[in-house]
Each structure stands twice: as structure tokens, then as C-alpha cells.
Amino acid sequence: MPKNTQGIAVIGAGSWGTALALVLADNGHDVRIWGHKQEQIDEINERHTNHKYLPGLKLPAGIKGYTSLREVMNGITDLVLAVPTKAIREVLGKIAPVAENPFTIVHVSKGIEPDTLLRISEMIEEELPSSLLAGVVVLSGPSHAEEVSLRHPTTVTVSSRNMETAERIQDLFINQNFRVYTNPDIVGVEIGGALKNIIALAAGITDGLGYGDNAKAALITRGLAEISRLGTAMGANPLTFSGLAGIGDLIVTCTSVHSRNWRAGNLLGKGQKLDEVLENMGMVVEGVRTTKAAYQLAKKYNVDMPITSALYHVLFNGENVKESVDRLMNRTKTAEMEDLVNILGARLGD
Ligand SMILES: NC(=O)C1=CN([C@@H]2O[C@H](COP(=O)(O)OP(=O)(O)OC[C@H]3O[C@@H](n4cnc5c(N)ncnc54)[C@H](OP(=O)(O)O)[C@@H]3O)[C@@H](O)[C@H]2O)C=CC1
Ligand SMILES: O=C(CO)COP(=O)(O)O
After folding, report:
1. Which residues form a coiled coil (predicted)?
2. Global ipTM
3. Domain that holds residue 27
4. What is the DSSP string of 85-138?
5. Residues enclosing ligand 2, CB less than 6 A?
6. Is the pLDDT of residue 253 over 90?
7. pTM, whole model, 2 decimals?
8. Which one-letter DSSP state was computed for residue 242?
């Protein structure tokens, strides 16, 4: 596999940034990881661990930690952006003045910005001048950092408006444990990755309420239906939602104990308050902000998203979780596929 001779910068030293730094180091790349906490970067450089985010993991000495964005960006042509969606604009705003040459961004975050309703690649294009941005790629799929860091078999997909760039990034990451596919549908890949977190929160809630596997299978299936409806209305290829960034990620996030979104939902289902849950999680729970964004997008595109809407009212209007499930179950009867077929028909008719 071709080596990036300049080294690759990973921006964000949380769970996912650290696990992906390991994949890149396993592939022989020199990796610079940037974090904003001196103590944590000292730990990475001196003890080769990142205890808070991936306890027990020993990092190769080839992964070097930095707190200076100027130093980490020096000569860099490929950058992996691994901070929560909420922090992306702030971090890019600090990178722009210190970057000296154009670079490709591989973003690995799973969110949509509330109010602007932008996908992450669109936020990146807004924040960085085109003279600095050589390309934007999204890497997404069913991939919990905890298992990637154990080098357990994992599959993801990369997408970009420029497929040559996507294929080059595929080559940087792919190895025997980390299989990387390409998909030209950047809208679908970003929407699938972001919206599955909403359904995982809901699946955590039903598990917390003590409902069983039927309820979870219903959420996964009907969750996929509403993700596909919105994504298709936004221009995605509906087939993307039957792939890794769609059903693949939805399954892993709704069923894995590693999922922060599922865990947060589970605590909500058991009766904890949202503030309390988020305070104790210690890591990002992207689905909360994304629920707000998807609720707004559903209105904008006039798409029915009953699970997202129910969760929105639980999270932001204090509605009771059990009553919300009852209301979802007692909506007017409907057909299973008709809405998606109509959305697709309207698009093809345009
Ligand atoms: N974890 C996973 O398995 C996967 C995560 N993702 C996605 O990757 C993205 C990052 O998630 P993940 O790594 O898991 O999150 P974590 O909560 O594990 O880590 C987030 C990291 O970002 C840092 N950070 C937060 N805000 C800022 C800021 N304003 N400036 C600089 N650094 C900041 C945090 O620092 P601090 O320690 O100070 O809080 C921390 O190092 C998310 O969008 C997530 O959905 C995607 C696939 C898998
Ligand atoms: O996206 C993920 C796995 O693919 C991580 O999900 P959580 O953020 O819910 O842990």
C-alpha cells in the first residue's frame, strides 16, 4: 500500500481519532495526533496510552502527540478530522490560519449541524478556503473504536465527490483487519452515519424500558425507512441505506454495548434525566444534536419521521418515554413502503 511520506495528521485525540491513528500506523504511516489537553498528549508521547478513551491499548511509538496545530499541520497533505460535530467549526477556524499548503480532509464524524442543517462536508467547505482544501472525504460505517483498536475485523466505506481522492484514501486505510469500500454517494453516506444515532438512542430507550427484541427490530427497520425517506428526499441514492453506512451502522449502534448513543438512550429509558446522562457519559453522544437537526430537516423536506419526532419531544420537550412509545404504536395505520416509493417517484419526475 502506498505510504504518505509527509505523515498524516489526526485531529482529535478521543476514541475514534486514536483508533484510526492506530490503523494508519499499522499501515506504516507516520501519524501525528492532535489533542487540546497537554496532559493527555504527554500520556500519548510518554506512556503510549490514551487511558480515558481506550483503556488497555498500547499505541506504537510512531504515533506522536501534539498540542500545537501549527506544528501538527507542518507539511501535512492528508488530515483526518475526528472531533465531535459541535467542535468542527472551532477547530477548522484554528487550522486555517496555520496551514501552509493544500490538504485533503477525511472526516469521520457523524452528525448534522442544527439550524444550518448542513452535512459535515458542507460545513468543512464553508470553513476552509478552496485554496487550502484539496479534497473532502467521509469515512463511515459500523466501526466502534473499542473493536478497531483490538484489530477485530471491521468494514467501512469512504465517499467523496472526487472518486480518485476516495480511492486514494481507501488505500491509506485498508488492511487485513480494516476493510474499506468506496461509495460515490456522499449525501447518503453522511446522512446514514448521522441519523443512525437517533435510532440508537431510541433503541436504548426501549431496552431501558424493558421491551424486548421485537421492539428493537421494529426500530431498526422502521428507523431505516425514515432515514431512507429523508436521505432520498435530500438527493441520496436509496441503495446506500442498505450498505455499510446505512443498515450496517444502524445494526451495530442499536445493538452494541459500546455505543454511547445506545447507552445514553438506555439510561433515559431507565428514568434518568438527559442532563444527568450526558454529564456522566464523558464522551460525545452525537444523536442528541442530530435529533434536533433531523427534526428540522424533516419539516424542510416535508418527510414523515415519526421516530425522530417522538425522540425530539422526549429530549427537548420533556415528554414521557413510555407514553411516546405508546403514541408511536397507535398512529393511523399506514403502508410499509409507499412513502419512499412516492419520494423516489417525485425525484425521478423532476
Ligand atoms: N467512537 C467511535 O467508535 C466512533 C466515533 N465516530 C464519530 O467520531 C466523532 C468523534 O467521536 P469520538 O472520538 O468517539 O468522541 P470522544 O468523545 O471519544 O472524543 C472526542 C475528542 O474530541 C475532543 N474535543 C471535543 N471538543 C473539542 C474542541 N472544541 N476542540 C478540540 N478538541 C475537542 C475531545 O477532547 P476532551 O477529551 O477534552 O473532551 C476528545 O479528545 C463523532 O462524530 C463520532 O460520532 C465515528 C465512528 C466510530
Ligand atoms: O458510530 C459509531 C459506530 O459505528 C459509534 O457510535 P456511538 O457514537 O453511539 O458510540
Report:
1. none
2. 0.99
3. 8-184
4. GGGHHHHHHHHTTT--S-EEEEE----B-TTT--BHHHHHHHHS-TTTEEEEEE
5. 110, 142-144, 197, 200, 249, 252-253, 258-261, 286
6. yes
7. 0.97
8. G
